[in-house]
Design a protein that fits this description.
Helix content is 36%, strand content 14%. By secondary structure, the protein is α+β, with helices and mostly antiparallel strands.
Length: 185
Amino acid sequence: MKLPFGPATRLALVLLATASLAACASTKPQGPVAPRGPAEPEAPYRPQESSPPVTQQQAPGVVPGSVQDFVINAGELVYFDLDSITLRADAKPVLDAQAAWLRRWGAVRVRIEGNCDERGTREYNFALGARRANSVKEYLVAHGVSASRIDTISYGKERPIDPGSNEEAWARNRNARTAITEGAR
């Protein structure tokens, strides 16, 4: 598959993806992974009367409310299993952080970009990417973010973050990315 951009751009995308994954890495030891069963229904988000203010540690030089602040403190990517739109357990802490960040910065609008791996037809992957983006949007809305601030789009298999053709690359390319479109500092 020939990509519409050059080697330098691909390298930059791989480095960006690696940095994003490293920023989300946990230092806690991970136990065995529990088998995934049917998703449990989420309770609707209800803010508490006396919620403590959201406080985040700021890296030096990071402007609060900026795109960089969002990527570092909330994360922009969540991943999906093969042919699935169900949010994985590892996606929920990222989406909880995104929802908290978006509630704090109420003027920010985002676009959820649904992506797939290279397998399957173009049409199937566009439909699957759209359902993945909507799955993320529904979660954010259920956690207090106004639906009017969230747009969705599917890129199907057209914008892979990993150009490889193996299980590891495919796993990275099955994602939904939350991108800030306006209102950031």
